[in-house]
Amino acid sequence: MSRVSSRSDHRARVSVGRGRLWRVGEPRGAKATLAKRRADVAAMFDGVAARYDLVNDVLTGGLDRRWRHAVVAAVVPEPGERILDLAAGTGTSSKPFADAGALVVPADLSLGMLQVGKQRQPELAFVNADALALPFADGAFDAVTISFGLRNVEDTAAALTELRRVTRPGGRVVICEFSTPTAAWLRLAYHGVALRALPLIARLTASNPVAYEYLAESIRAWPTQPVLADALTAAGWRDVQWQNLSGGIVALHRGRA
Ligand SMILES: C[S@@+](CC[C@H](N)C(=O)[O-])C[C@H]1O[C@@H](n2cnc3c(N)ncnc32)[C@H](O)[C@@H]1O
After folding, report:
1. 112 SS3 class
2. Which atom of ligand 1 is nearest to the CA of 92?
3. Tens-digit pLDDT profile for residues 78-135
């Protein structure tokens, strides 16, 4: 397990992805595909890290803040509880747990996201970790949560099993992810208009528009609420339920170990 320090790493690292070369941290051109190869995903998030939180607020019109409150309400963090916030990125999804007195571990694959997080929130104990091989003991956490991260992991079923492994018996899982709007008119507007506009809006915010093409593609390809619930059950979670937010644009799935 490697902890991330607040010291910036100025060495230029170079990644190879699908025959292309790019410098990590360079916002241009890093885009993952639906194969979700970890090197591609990490490089893409490295590239958007500096503006990630700002672009999130712009693209969701601030709704992301409401969704984050719903996640915390679903986890119900108690002071002193050990909570894993997997795919924590810059730690924006982790901070409310620390504020509630829990011992939150923000873990992420992308060093770029972690470095930005550590600069902004030095009090959080960021960990560089891969969802498919978590560097934690069995039953290490009282609760595990992942916000807008599961969709980016190469193997959903394996990640759900790995999350289950690190949760103590009786512990909780809460997954916050983009999902399928329940009303036909909203599905049409969301898929037909909003998702198509994402890269354009991202371009206006001077971020990496191709990364937001991937965002739209990965949302379109993501399973519906019942299918994800079945995947949770198959991974060993019980009492699985979900709650739609903003008409199903986002869904919160929860279960018990
Ligand atoms: C959209 S961001 C979400 C960040 C944060 N949870 C939030 O709500 O703002 C998705 C994060 O998933 C991380 N990620 C993708 N694949 C991962 C994996 N296999 N293991 C750990 N983190 C991963 C990315 O590095 C990225 O920081």
Report:
1. helix
2. 9
3. 999 999 999 999 999 999 999 999 999 999 999 999 999 999 999 999 999 999 999 9
108, 113, 176: residue to mutate for ligand 1 pocket, most atoms within 8 A of CB: 108
Domains in the chain: ranges and CATH: 38-256 (3.40.50.150)
Distance in angstroms (rounded) separating the CA atoms of residues 118 and 37: 25
pLDDT-based confidence at 199, cuts 50/70/90?
confident
CA of 145 to the centre of ligand 1 (A): 12
Give the DSSP per-residue string, 144-202: EEEES-GGGSS-HHHHHHHHHHTEEEEEEEEEEEE---SSHHHHHHIIIIIHHHHHHHH
Residue 23: predicted pLDDT:
37
Q: Phi and psi (nearest 5°) for 109?
A: -80, -35
Distance from the alpha carbon of residue 85 to the mean position of ligand 1, in angstroms: 10
Taking a C-beta distance cutoff of 8 angstroms, is the pair 237, 59 a contact? Answer: no
Answer whether residue 207 shows pLDDT above 70: no
pLDDT at 253 over 80: yes
